[in-house]
Every structure is written in C-alpha cells, then in structure tokens.
Amino acid sequence: MTSREPGPPVIGGRVVVRYRLPPGGSHPLTDVIGTLEQLEPTVVIRTADDRVVEIERADVVRLKALGPKPVRRSDGRVR
After folding, report:
1. What does the angle CA 66 – CA 60 – CA 31 come to, to the nearest 5 degrees?
2. Helix (H, G, I), strand (E, B) or coil at 74
3. Cα dist. 48→4, 14, 22, 28, 69 in Å?
4. Sign of CA pseudo-dihedral 69, 73, 76, 78
C-alpha cells in the first residue's frame, strides 16, 4: 500500500498556511492556499488568482503540503 499523503512543503509546491491576523480583527486566524514561493525571511504564497501573500514567520501557525489541485468536471476537461 502506498501513502497518498503529500510530503513536507517544498518551494514550488501547493500548500496551505494557517496564520495569525493582527489583533482587533473579527478572526484571530486565517488560511491561504497556493504555491509556496519563499520560506525565509518571510513565507510567500502565490494564490490561484495570482495574488501574493507575504506572512511573517512568527505569525505562521501551520504550514502543510497539499496534493495537486483537484480537477473539477465543470473545468471541461475530459478524463
């Protein structure tokens, strides 16, 4: 049996990052999913809509590798 879990996060890989927001907001944490572009000195993620999110390392609560983006039937791709 082979593992389907992605390995550790790597530059260029798809990831999810949970991080702390500044105090006083409606939520203490938020998540971003995208391509990991940088780990030092800050974490930089490029989202599917091409936004760049830069996060201070101290604010990162969790960084997890994800598998490839799922293909949806509505994308019009043939299986």
Report:
1. 55
2. helix
3. 23, 10, 24, 24, 10
4. positive
What is the value of pTM for the model shown?
Answer: 0.80
Place of tokens 């800050």: 42
Report domain 14-68's class.
mainly beta
Euclidean distance between CA atoms 49 and 34, whole angstroms: 9
> Hey, is 58 helix, strand or coil?
helix
What are the tens digits of pLDDT across the range 10-47? 999 999 999 999 998 889 999 999 999 999 999 999 99
